UniProtKB/TrEMBL annotation, chain A:
<dbReference type="InterPro" id="IPR009051">
    <property type="entry name" value="Helical_ferredxn"/>
</dbReference>
<dbReference type="Pfam" id="PF13183">
    <property type="entry name" value="Fer4_8"/>
</dbReference>
<keyword id="KW-0249">Electron transport</keyword>
<keyword id="KW-0408">Iron</keyword>
<keyword id="KW-0677">Repeat</keyword>
<keyword id="KW-0411">Iron-sulfur</keyword>
<dbReference type="GO" id="GO:0051539">
    <property type="term" value="F:4 iron, 4 sulfur cluster binding"/>
</dbReference>
<dbReference type="GO" id="GO:0046872">
    <property type="term" value="F:metal ion binding"/>
</dbReference>
<keyword id="KW-0479">Metal-binding</keyword>
TrEMBL record, chain B:
<dbReference type="InterPro" id="IPR016166">
    <property type="entry name" value="FAD-bd_PCMH"/>
</dbReference>
<keyword id="KW-0285">Flavoprotein</keyword>
<dbReference type="InterPro" id="IPR036318">
    <property type="entry name" value="FAD-bd_PCMH-like_sf"/>
</dbReference>
<protein>
    <submittedName>
        <fullName>Glycolate oxidase</fullName>
    </submittedName>
</protein>
<comment type="similarity">
    <text>Belongs to the FAD-binding oxidoreductase/transferase type 4 family.</text>
</comment>
<dbReference type="InterPro" id="IPR016164">
    <property type="entry name" value="FAD-linked_Oxase-like_C"/>
</dbReference>
<dbReference type="Pfam" id="PF01565">
    <property type="entry name" value="FAD_binding_4"/>
</dbReference>
<dbReference type="InterPro" id="IPR016171">
    <property type="entry name" value="Vanillyl_alc_oxidase_C-sub2"/>
</dbReference>
<keyword id="KW-0560">Oxidoreductase</keyword>
Length: 434, 462
């Protein structure tokens, strides 16, 4: 029985918790609110009371269960090995089953499923977004701020929608001479619509390593925004569409440059489709050959070191929760950074602490998300670096927003962008030396 | 249920944001870290930001006779924060500032919501240390640990919380703000109320500021682990170390059941048939540590340790401590409910206590693992059970009764560091007699005539 289907599925998980409260030491939300309901122990108790019949699921409980960035820091610090990430998913799914989805989220997730509408909305957005968003001058990228507060505050900085989506910029198959491998690229929404620069860097680096890149046109949203908020039906639809899209094109491996996407392909699709024989097998097959881009470049390729040019950057690395704790990938991005000539890696205090973005969490709890972000921003500032590298577009957005609001000069990039930059410089160096 | 005007007055003092009244929030203050203890929901949770607000809240509670359950992080193991009579939970977590580290007087002044580790991080910047280190240093508050007089691993050499508390600001049950003690080493003015309020479990007053003593952080440390095939030999080794005038910072013991469980859990390399493992750490100046380490090593060998490991660096040290650190979590994974006691005996009685616990386990057909602070006589017999099994829980309660009887018969005490709370209330007269308990009650009534502060804990109303 999967966590998405019934609260009973986590009864034993709940029972493992001995209420020692160790989760309080690491929970980013609890650190801000200092209320018991903010931390895992509090929400575990609430789930227990629901299961024992002491209380019923209420709208209020639903909103308490939304107080989690799913950063999994409590999992790691739990002496009893409680998987709180499972508990929160089950509790949210139960809340949606009993009380429905919050209206704002409902609209968003329906749109995510309706790819074409979404595509149009985003494209129209890129033309009309000037109405709602105000450009802010920034040396590094196109950023914008809300002109009017639509309920998420005016603090948040957004990247401008790209004029062209990544997937419309490239053909479905990007050929190379003598391909070593054929790799499917799952772009995810943020890279497709906002951070196309990350997507281009992924393609550039793969081609540089003689890898043919396949970008199925009909891939969809990874569905994580839906599944973490309990909208299991939407998440299932998206999982199926993605599996079919990639299966149709075929590939030796699948890469993602986004931590939600990686989690989806490696773990969530299989869990969602547990009761569907045929699709479960397909999900398992793809899970086995899905890789985060840094993991892929270190362990599967391994990426070419010759031809790397000098990139003079002082870099600090922020660990995306779902890459680090979610997929155990933490050394790989650092290894990539360290292999780039000229890059100096300076660690920040607690690089693994959540940035507070957590997808729609930052929309539902903008103030809290901002407070969590402020701590991260302060940690970044004290490293006196000029670049923050990370492995997830959602984190990049949050970090950029934090840095912009704090008003210091720091570029926020995906690790793979710095690697692509190095290959590019390497080529120029070669031309100049001739 | 509280009258509407009570809530209105609380909101007037604290503001809406700091008065929680919704069921969904109240339910999360119904429990603490105590196993197999009935939870109880409060009627309201308030979270003051200042001492003045605490005083105002107490005055409101006094006027309407609302019970006040003061709460830090809720990690105590005796039911100390469960609001069994309803009323108000007073969360101290927003009073969380370190007000001062005074390097000349070697003191720090903190608010009660400060986490112990935060104080230590601050002290470490000045090369100083606040030694009390319960297993919950990264989560427990200063107010909670002062109120429980928490111990920890360093008790043998450095003592426990009460040895570091120099002054307290207290809000009394009548809402008045008072100060006791201060930064002076010597102070005999009046009764020693700092001592009385330390370990009072929130039943006599509310702590709003704490002055603690700091010490210079030790320069070096050395850890070793010794395996014994006989509990008595381990006991003799403990006595011999002390007799040779070495006071280790920590001297911990794990019994056979614990060793087996831990070994299965983390594979720390302990022999499964070992009857006892001793973990010892000496600290201080480099030269002293060198000398003491050699001495301890010799004693352990002479007393018949069958295996001895000495950590060469911090990495090896962490490995040795892995077994001890994993004890509770490993045991907790074995069965759903972990009943952890802390009956304490004079250190010379440790072997007797270990053997008695083992026969109690056999008699009641229970799994009891014992580990703990052998150096200070504070053992943690841990009963592994399942609170959903009513029949087994009956046997658990019988075993707990007998563990307490044994500790008292050996000249020990009911609780070394976890406090009385609800959990051990009924055993008090076995340690103090009727007259003793009556004296406690008179103190309670003198300071809190209406039983407003943490009612239902330590002493029963007559
Ligand atoms: C895994 C685990 C390991 C532990 N290890 C140890 C150990 O090694 N040694 C040890 O001694 N204990 C240990 N404990 C017990 C517990 O952590 C300590 O008692 C801790 O100091 C309690 O702090 P707290 O902030 O959680 O207090 P709480 O549990 O919130 O409160 C404890 C008591 O203090 C009162 N109180 C809290 N704040 C105030 C205040 N400001 N004014 C007046 N009264 C107040 C409460 O009413 C209650 O009676 C352990 C607990 C766990 C779960």
């Amino acid at each position: 029985m999967s966590v998405y289907d019934s609260l009973d599925s986590i009864a034993e998980e709940l029972h493992k918790c001995m209420k020692c409260g160790n989760c309080m030491a690491v929970c980013p939300i609890y650190k801000e609110t200092r209320q018991e309901v903010g931390v895992a122990r509090g929400k575990i108790s609430l789930a227990e009371y629901i299961l024992s019949g002491e209380t019923e699921m209420t709208k209020g409980l639903g909103s308490r269960f939304s107080l989690c960035t799913t950063c999994m820091a409590c999992n790691t610090n739990c002496p009893c090995g409680v998987r709180f990430d499972k508990i929160i998913l089950a509790a949210r799914a139960e809340s949606v089953r009993k009380k429905g989805l919050q209206p704002a989220k409902k609209i968003a997730f329906t749109a995510l499923k309706m790819q074409r509408v979404f595509d149009f909305g985003m494209k129209a957005g890129s033309i009309f977004q000037g109405v709602a968003l105000k450009n802010i001058p920034n040396r590094h990228s196109k950023l914008a701020r809300m002109r009017v507060d639509v309920g998420i505050g005016k603090e948040k900085v957004f990247p401008m929608l790209s004029k062209k989506t990544l997937r419309s910029e490239f053909p479905a198959v990007i050929k190379v001479k003598n391909p070593k491998l054929r790799v499917g690229f799952f772009t995810g929404c943020m890279i497709n619509y906002f951070y196309t620069d990350i997507g281009r860097a992924v393609i550039e680096v793969l081609r540089e390593n003689d890898i043919e890149v396949v970008i199925p046109k009909f891939q969809a949203c990874c569905g994580i925004p839906a599944s973490v908020n309990g909208d299991v039906a939407s998440a299932r639809t998206l999982a199926k569409r993605n599996l079919r899209a990639f299966e149709r094109m075929g590939a030796d491996a699948l890469v993602v440059a986004c931590s939600s996407g990686g989690t989806a392909w490696k773990h969530v699709f299989g869990e969602l489709l547990e009761n569907d024989h045929e699709l479960k097998a397909l999900a398992d097959k793809w899970a086995k050959k899905s890789y985060d881009i840094s993991e892929f470049l270190i362990h599967q390729v391994p990426f070419k070191k010759e031809g790397l040019g000098r990139v003079a950057r002082k870099v600090t690395y922020h660990e995306p929760c779902h890459l680090n704790r979610g997929q155990g990938i933490s050394k790989e991005p650092r290894e990539i950074l360290k292999s780039i000539p000229g890059v100096e890696l300076i660690e920040m205090k607690e690089p693994g602490r959540c940035c507070g973005m957590a997808g729609s969490f930052s929309l539902v709890h903008p103030d809290l998300s901002g407070q969590i972000s402020d701590r991260k921003t302060a940690d970044i500032q004290t490293t006196h670096t000029d670049t923050v590298a990370t492995g997830c577009p959602a984190c990049r957005l949050q970090l950029q927003s934090g840095v912009e609001n704090a008003g210091f000069d720091e570029e926020v990039l995906h690790t793979v962008q710095i690697l692509a930059e190095s290959y590019r410089v390497g080529k120029e160096e070669l031309i100049h030396s001739k | 249920m509280l009258a509407r005007e009570v809530l209105e007055e609380l909101v007037r003092v604290l503001g809406r944001e700091y008065v929680l009244t919704e069921q969904e929030d109240l339910l999360t203050y119904a429990y603490d870290a105590t196993a197999a203890m009935k939870h109880h929901k409060p009627d309201v949770v308030v979270a003051p930001l200042t001492t003045e607000q605490v005083a105002d809240v107490v005055k409101i509670a006094l006027r309407y006779r609302v019970p006040i359950y003061t709460r830090g992080s809720g990690t105590n193991l005796s039911g100390g924060t469960i609001p069994i009579e309803g009323g108000m939970v007073l969360s101290m977590l927003h009073l969380n500032k370190i007000l001062e580290v005074d390097q000349d007087n070697l003191t720090a002044t903190v608010q009660p919501g400060v986490i112990i580790q935060a104080l230590n991080d601050e002290a470490a910047k000045h090369g100083l240390l606040y030694p009390p280190d319960p297993g919950t240093v990264t989560t427990a508050t200063m107010g909670g640990s002062v109120s429980e007089c928490s111990g920890g691993l360093r008790g043998l050499k450095y003592g426990v919380t009460k040895h570091y508390i120099m002054g307290l600001q207290m809000v009394l049950a009548n809402g008045e703000v008072t100060r006791w003690g201060g930064k002076t080493v010597k102070n005999v003015t009046g009764y020693d109320l700092v001592a009385l309020f330390t370990g009072a479990e929130g039943t006599l007053g509310i702590i709003t500021e704490i002055i603690v003593k700091l010490i210079p952080a030790p320069e070096a440390r050395k850890s070793m682990l010794a395996v014994f095939d006989d509990v008595d030999k381990a006991g003799r080794a403990i006595a011999a170390i002390i007799r040779n005038k070495v006071i280790p910072a920590t001297l911990e013991i794990l019994d056979n059941v614990t060793i087996q469980t831990v070994e299965n859990f983390v594979h720390a390399g302990l022999p499964m048939d070992a009857e006892a493992v001793l973990l010892c750490e000496v600290d201080g100046y480099k030269e002293v540590v060198q000398r003491e380490a050699v001495l301890v090593e010799r004693i352990l060998k002479e007393e018949g340790a069958v295996q001895l490991k000495i950590a060469k660096d911090d990495k090896e040290r962490d490995l040795l401590w892995l077994a001890r650190r994993s004890a509770l979590p490993a045991l907790a994974q074995k069965r759903p409910t972990t009943v952890l006691e802390d009956a304490t005996v004079p250190r010379s009685k440790i072997p007797d206590m270990l053997k008695a616990i083992r026969s109690i386990a056999t008699k009641h057909n229970l799994q009891i693992a014992t580990f703990g602070h052998a150096g200070d006589g504070n053992l943690h017999p841990t009963i592994l059970t399942d609170e959903r099994d009513a029949e087994e829980m009956k046997r658990v309660h019988l075993a707990v009764d007998e563990i307490f009887e044994t500790a008292l018969a050996l000249g020990g005490t009911l609780s070394g560091e976890h406090g009385i709370g609800i959990a051990k209330m009924k055993y008090l007269d076995r340690e103090f007699g009727k007259a003793g308990v009556a004296a406690l009650r008179r103190i309670k009534k003198a300071l809190d005539p209406y039983y407003l502060l943490n009612p239902g804990k330590i002493v029963r109303r007559d």
